[in-house]
Amino acid sequence: MRRVLKTHGRPTACFQCRENFGAALPFLRERVKWLMNVTIQWENAAKSVLRYTFEGVWDWHDFHAAFDQQREEFSLSNLCIVIDLRKTLHFPSDAVLHLRRMAELANSISGIMIVIATSAPIVTIFQVFMVIYHSVSDKFHIASSDEEVYRILGLSI
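-> structure tokens emitted (157 positions)
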């Protein structure tokens, strides 16, 4: 009997039987990395700016997993987060529901969050987000380039 293993609704591997599951774990780990089109890196040597770069097609599972991965860093003093969406091919549906998580993140960090976007629909989504979640809107900025981000943060390029 052929079985399909699913992770969050996505088919990831086919197995002839359940015994093959253990042998497939390395494949699954690589597959998850491939599916998650998010890069996380420190923007500066002082580790005060954390950049999330979303590329290609991604979904809300990828979004939440990326922020969960760095949760311990959110307690650092003066941590700022940059979310780069310039290489995104689309924005997943139900944005207002899922972006609530960003409002919660904004409350958990001491610095600001900057969204880099050049797509008009994505910029509009974040403008609406800042109206809906006005209690944290002072912690959010929208930028269109790295230069603008560095100007907002007061960093040199």
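The longest strand covers residues 80-88.
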